Amino acid sequence: SFLGKRPSVVEAGIGVLACVPLRHEGRMLGLIYVDGRPRRDGFTEVDLEILDSLRQHAAMLIAGLHLDRRIRNLFPKPEPGAAAAEKGLLLQLERRLGKSVKLRLPGPGPGPGPEER
Question: Which residues pair with 22 in a beta bridge?
Answer without folding.
Answer: 30
